[in-house]
């Protein structure tokens, strides 16, 4: 209690604040935080929120409506559903933050959003194993490589992969889920390669039975995502890459509800031939084939680009 009183007596006088001076006083009373970065983030947040209220002449009713929406968003969150991530996705914030925090030099693989469906219980599989056991899904062989900017293979990269089933649902969206499916973890080999069997991705709606779905409806926006497969790459010394590959020609390719599609990540499917059947046991001639060469950058290179971009944003 003594320390609280001491802080109170050393605070600036916060009486008779007005529309014009409340922002600077809120920032002043928050300025004793010992973390320069946190202090900066909070100061800019308060400033932009206050400017928004002043610019829009925000009413009490509108403010209450916003609070109710955010409250409902939080109440919709569970261990397997993150409604706030979904909200960030449909507002384009998730993609923006990823682009700022993980800038990519020309020639490297672009990132995209994580989405709300990643889990931490995927099984480690050997190369060539099947990660999807959906018998109604059309079989797909995925053969990829991981390289650096100079084209050298990167071995020992942890690759996290996940996709929906043939109904457009992720495993944990089904009641009674007792094990992960449609997801796996692999490790790139000495040649930087990895391969596995999944199913051809299908378009699907993001969860739209909650506050985010109601917001999309008000905005006259659809909740659909184009067909895609998620990939996450992680190895010490390399910038973590969260990305996805999208199927060309999907009806939602140019109207993704969460803004994740980038042209460099759009792919065409091929077909497995007899030579590939000999290389990849368990496949068959005519099976659909997805190939892609992922290019990672070092943490040092990403930090350099991030510092340059951050300086440009603050100038």
TrEMBL record:
The record's keywords, sorted A to Z, are: Dioxygenase, Iron, Metal-binding, Oxidoreductase
Catechol dioxygenase N-terminal domain residues are 36-108
Record flagged with keyword Metal-binding:
yes
Q: Which residues form the Intradiol ring-cleavage dioxygenases domain?
A: 114-296
Cofactor annotation: Fe(3+)
- PANTHER family (UniProt xref): DIOXYGENASE, PUTATIVE (AFU_ORTHOLOGUE AFUA_2G02910)-RELATED (PTHR33711), INTRADIOL RING-CLEAVAGE DIOXYGENASES DOMAIN-CONTAINING PROTEIN-RELATED (PTHR33711:SF7)
Question: Biological process GO terms, please?
Answer: catechol-containing compound metabolic process
Q: Which GO terms describe its molecular function?
A: catechol 1,2-dioxygenase activity; ferric iron binding
Return the SUPFAM superfamilies for the record. Aromatic compound dioxygenase
Q: Which family is this sequence assigned to? A: Belongs to the intradiol ring-cleavage dioxygenase family.
Q: Which InterPro entries match?
A: Catechol_dOase_N, Intradiol_dOase_C, Intradiol_dOase_core, Intradiol_RC_Dioxygenase
Q: Is ATP-binding tagged as a keyword?
A: no
Q: What protein am I looking at?
A: Hydroxyquinol 1,2-dioxygenase
